[in-house]
Amino acid sequence: MVMTKCDQASIKTAGLIIIGNEILSGKTQDQNSFFLATELRSLGVSLLRISVIPDDLEMISKEAALFSSAFDVVFTSGGVGPTHDDITMEGIAKAFGVQLMRHPVLERTFHERYGKAANVAIMKMADVPAGSEVVEFETRNFPLVVFRNIYIFPGIPRYLQEKFNLVRERFRTSVFFLKRIYLRATEADIAAILNVVVEKNDCVTFGSYPILGNDDYQIIVTAESKIEADLAVALEELLGKLPGNIIVKIA
Amino acid sequence: MVMTKCDQASIKTAGLIIIGNEILSGKTQDQNSFFLATELRSLGVSLLRISVIPDDLEMISKEAALFSSAFDVVFTSGGVGPTHDDITMEGIAKAFGVQLMRHPVLERTFHERYGKAANVAIMKMADVPAGSEVVEFETRNFPLVVFRNIYIFPGIPRYLQEKFNLVRERFRTSVFFLKRIYLRATEADIAAILNVVVEKNDCVTFGSYPILGNDDYQIIVTAESKIEADLAVALEELLGKLPGNIIVKIA
């Protein structure tokens, strides 16, 4: 998917693991995937996989191990609270054969914040896979924990977004250049032309998306690349081959 | 996750594969996951995994093989149009070592519908993994193709929903019974109590979800089961242990 010759950045790829029965059962609509997909794209990172899995130790463990080795950076969402179904930390520790350890910064923070109310459930949230980094934080909420290349986020969208903003600049890399071509046509009309241009332009990714219920255009073709010059060449070629009267706009 | 003794239905589990670069890059917000999660739950089916992957032959093939063996029924969304990035059928065929074959019903349908406009791109959509079933259809759109236990849906939400409605009754099984308990408390307050009740009630699944910005309640605890009597026992036990003054409502 991400060809090395087309992307020289050090952080190229990301994977996202959404942990939570409530998403799979339709009780809650996932908002974190779209937020992170949008953010990562604007930072230049290719999100290559999203996996939504239950609050299940074995599944979390397997997915964390797989994602950590497959992608440059991994994000998890959910399962970091104080109740029985919050087992993300345990799952990640299991994946790498390390113990859960009480992190001194978290322990101190929770004691300061909760005082006598810092019971076993609260202190459970201070237990992280041995070797985890705690990212400095200024918000009222829980700190962001990072284990190896895995960023462990809470599931509540507002908290996830606050924490992501603490670290987003770590991921910024060379950006994608994108053009959208709006066409008055069906996909069948342009498929043959598109195929020829796709074949010849290795470092440009094309997409074709039908749009329903719009009188002005019926397809958006997207062309994108990390190499601006390659995108310009591909775009010129495509526009040269498409019948001029179906091109509504380019943006 | 789904314990056999707690669920005697023949269709118990489902997996969903969302295929599309446009979701991973944040260009489009996925609506199909939430729709199918909600529908499957109301039919009594446990959706156990959602995977969002790129338009990549190898990834589609691997995921289709994995999901087909892991779950009773599998749904895919996207990648069934006429352009170069529509390779879902090819990926599924590869997963099972079968050829793509032109399906006679689809071939006839497309010829009737498009006449002379039925070019190579259009007819590509008649090529399905050998052995596929075509579900009868009355809508104007493309038919629903089923290969083994894999239901192959288009990515456009309106089309996916229309097609799902053609077959939804195939999946109906024993339903889940669900109770929500709204609490004026923090998760830390109730975690210990919840743990005891969770331990003792094998066939009941509990969830605990913090709610932000609500003055009336701050947690929703969910309890659900396919066995109504077990749910009643667990609920009674939980309500007996929780302090009465934190219970806002049960629904």
Task: Explain how this protein is built.
Two copies of one chain form a homodimer. Helix content of chain A is 37%, strand content 24%. Chain A is built from nine helices and twelve strands. The first copy, chain A, has helices at 21-24, 32-43, 57-70, 88-95, 104-114, 120-124, 157-167, 187-200, 228-241, and strands at 13-19, 46-53, 73-77, 100-102, 127-129, 133-135, 144-147, 150-153, 177-183, 205-210, 219-225, 247-250. In chain A, the strands form three sheets. The first copy, chain A, has a six-stranded mixed β-sheet with strand order 2-1-3-8-7-6, with helices on both faces. In chain A, strands 10-11-9-12 form a four-stranded antiparallel β-sheet, with helices on one face. In chain A, a hairpin with an 8-residue loop joins strand 6 and strand 7 (144-147). In chain A, helix 3 packs across helix 4 and helix 8 crosses helix 9. Chain A is elongated and about 75 Å long. At the A-B interface, helix 1, helix 2, strand 2, helix 6 and helix 8 of A face helix 1, helix 2, strand 2, helix 6 and helix 8 of B. Strand 2 of chain A pairs antiparallel with strand 2 of chain B.
